[in-house]
Amino acid sequence: MDEIVTEHTGSILRIQFNRPTKRNAMTSAMYLALAGIFNEAANDENTRVVLWHGAGDSFCAGNDLEDFLKNPPGPGESPQASLMHAFVNFDKPVVVAVQGAAIGGGTTMLTHCDFIYAGESAKFQMPFINLAVVPEFGGGDEGRERGVQRASPLRRRKGSVFGFPGKAQARLHENRQISGNRMTMDRPMNVCVLVGSLRKASFNGMLANVLISLAPSSLKLDIVEVGQLPLYNEDLETAAPPASWTAFRQRVKAADAVLFVTPEYNRSVPAVLKNALDVGSRPYGASVWDHKPGAIVSSSPGAIGGFGANHHLRQSLVFLNVPIM
User: Fold this and answer.
1) Fewest Cβ atoms nearer than 10 Å: which of 2, 31, 73, 274?
2) Is 218 helix (H, G, I), strand (E, B) or coil?
3) pTM
4) 28-47 pLDDT, tens per residue?
5) 98 burial type by CB count under 10 A (0-12 exposed, 13-18 middle, 19+ buried)
6) Averaged over 294-301, what is the pLDDT?
7) Domain range annotation of the chain
8) Cα–Cα distance between 216 and 145 in angstroms, integer?
9) Range list of β-strands (E), 32-160
10) CATH fold for the domain made of 188-319
């Protein structure tokens, strides 16, 4: 039985994962086969669009662990890298239907697609993020050009179906707007930038300003100051909390996303940034972080570039329900 089934209908190429008993977990052979299918379709003038789905009750459970142990990464290009390169070079629309589990690579592969329909049973999970490990299919140079579109938050649509736009839709729409859980294309995405250093000549402050200057027109990045926030004390959480708390909460709540730019202090998050997280998470039940898409940039003069802060910050954001790139 073929583990990947393809079918041409006119200008449409249908791709189906076909290992339902294994929840369509990917073997090395499947990565290479799928890369070949996309490479061939890219050069086929008769193929105009790809429809992709999985057989059975799951889309894809990520790597087949048994196969992965038998075929560990070695010298040369890995099967996973071959598929990633095929995705990067594929410029035709890819529409995916997701049901059941989409775990690890089963989720990050979707960031290279153009529209995803997810049924009520769909469950997206990237276990490596909790370890502060960057998703393998979510990184790379292509993210500089297409990452904004591919990493956009899921948006609710009629009939309990979700979708997020990708590279083809980016060619059709120049601007975007997010309002609540709905996304339109009328204005740039409003991104709060929180810098975890108060030093005037902070490397991270300079880095944040460079990122702002390099942002595309689809993003509007603004630094939101956190140094003026009083240390969180629940005794101050009255009917009239500190004005700086209220202003900060309102500013973050109004944003479409948040970017953290931080150094590492003692293998952890700077106190000023942790305090901002605490202030924004209260009062109970009114956290401004809930479902707020985020990203983390960490830097330091040391060799590991602020890994400890990056890791600890991700732990807090997982608890605060912030989906992180």
Assistant:
1) 2
2) coil
3) 0.51
4) 999 999 999 999 999 999 99
5) buried
6) 89
7) 4-174, 188-319
8) 9
9) 49-54, 94-98, 101-103, 115-118, 123-125, 155-157
10) Rossmann fold (3.40.50)
